[in-house]
Amino acid sequence: MKKLILTAAILGLSAGVAAAQTVRMGTEGAYPPYNFIDDNGEVAGFERELGDKLCEMESLDCTWVTNDWDSIIPNLLSGNYDTIMAGMSITAEREKTIDFTQAYYPPAASSYMAMDPGADLKGGVIAAQTGTIQAAHVAETGATLAEYATLDDTIAAVKNGEADAVFADKDALKPFAGQDNMEFVGDDVQLGKGIGIGLRKSDTELKDKFNDGISKLKADGTLNELLKKYFGDDALTFKN
After folding, report:
1. Residue 2 within a domain
2. What is the CATH number of the domain that holds 169?
3. The pLDDT of residue 8
4. Radius of gyration over alpha carbons of the chain, in Å?
5. Among 13-22, 84-93, 230-239, where is mean pLDDT lowest?
């Protein structure tokens, strides 16, 4: 989709100035620090800052759209927005339906969190967000999977006794550690191929633009700086 940005000044200089491409960036707005809604009602977080930087580098006029996680891929395919930038891991299953850029976040750990250090992770009830790689993993472990719409809902399920533990991205769980006796339990699990920008398979030109920007931010160290800003000095980073 293209949008002509024409002002009187531009028209006066040249009638042939190239138009900027408007891209609707889809996100959840409920998965801090990747993405969340700030006090001003705006999308904020790691992916907002990174996405805006990529759009500026590639001369894309970007706007942000929020969508519930459980329908985020169908609404990309139906054209409600042009990208998914929502902490979405690159997996072979998702690649059957949509395309991804290269990873802008390295393959990260998924972890269990519970109020009881002896929580039964293999035979108990494990909460996970619907449609995530963590939910798919729990379903394969023999534990009883309890799916919820948001990360906050999975945490609430553990606190109110509906689930024995929650399984999610470790970085997303860190802010909850220490709240109401919530703590990490069991071993970390490595899932997925890292986190990338999801796109329709037909949008190859847009994919190339974002890949170009991500490569440049990896090369000059800017992406690693952003990772440390939002995830701490011990965050996973890319090797130059």
Report:
1. no
2. 3.40.190.10
3. 33
4. 19
5. 13-22
